Amino acid sequence: GAGVSQTPSNKVTEKGKYVELRCDPISGHTALYWYRQSLGQGPEFLIYFQGTGAADDSGLPNDRFFAVRPEGSVSTLKIQRTERGDSAVYLCASSLTEREQFFGPGTRLTVL
Amino acid sequence: KNEVEQSPQNLTAQEGEFITINCSYSVGISALHWLQQHPGGGIVSLFMLSSGKKKHGRLIATINIQEKHSSLHITASHPRDSAVYICAVRSSTGRRALTFGSGTRLQVQP
Q1: Touching B: A residues 55-84, CB under 8 Å
Q2: Rounded to whole angstroms, how far apart are CA atoms A111 and A107?
Q3: Rounded to an integer, what is the distance from CA B30 to the centroid of its chain?
Q4: What is the DSSP string of B19-67?
Q5: Average pLDDT per 10 consecutive residues for chain A, totaling 112 residues
Q6: CA-CA distance, A33 to B80, in Å (whole number)?
Q7: Count of alpha carbons within 13 angstroms of residue B81, beta-carbon side
Q8: Which of A23, A41, B33, B82 is most buried, by CB atoms within 10 Å?
């Protein structure tokens, strides 16, 4: 079956622009996670959805970052007024239980 | 100090060598994951442990809850094992998100 997919795979934008990153979880997975991975580092948690609601958004770095999951499936991570420090790989993962998380291939965001 | 520390950061081995990657953590956990990340970013889950030892093929993962330490072993290493290996923990507070180590970059030379 299909795994977690993320689009786009690469996104280059200019400082100050708005970007949206999309995650399609594995069908039926109720939990969805967004992580951010800077070069040479492990991923860092951003936000976790259980169904349509954000169960834990404590990892969002500031109010320029926002994520939605309106129908409990696809999620969109939105970044306003992008800054060069936002450049990273944004990873999405989904799970059905508390056990294994299945990761997508990531979106590499470059802010010039 | 990071909640999850891995060592070494970088490791170069010759094909066939036995490899050990270590992970120490400072918080109470409900589970520990070992993940593999290949160039290009894709992450694959290798193991999830809450106690003891697990084996899959040439990979072995162990955890000592009392010492807050886990190891990932690769026997008879092969160049295709070259990747970044990441340790991640799920807190025992009930928080679902994982906390990750910074990874160990393994290069196995033929």
Answers
A1: 55-56, 59
A2: 13
A3: 16
A4: EEEEEEE-S-EEEEEEEEE-TTS-EEEEEEESSEEEEETTEEEEEETTT
A5: 89 97 96 93 94 93 96 96 96 87 93 96
A6: 29
A7: 28
A8: A23
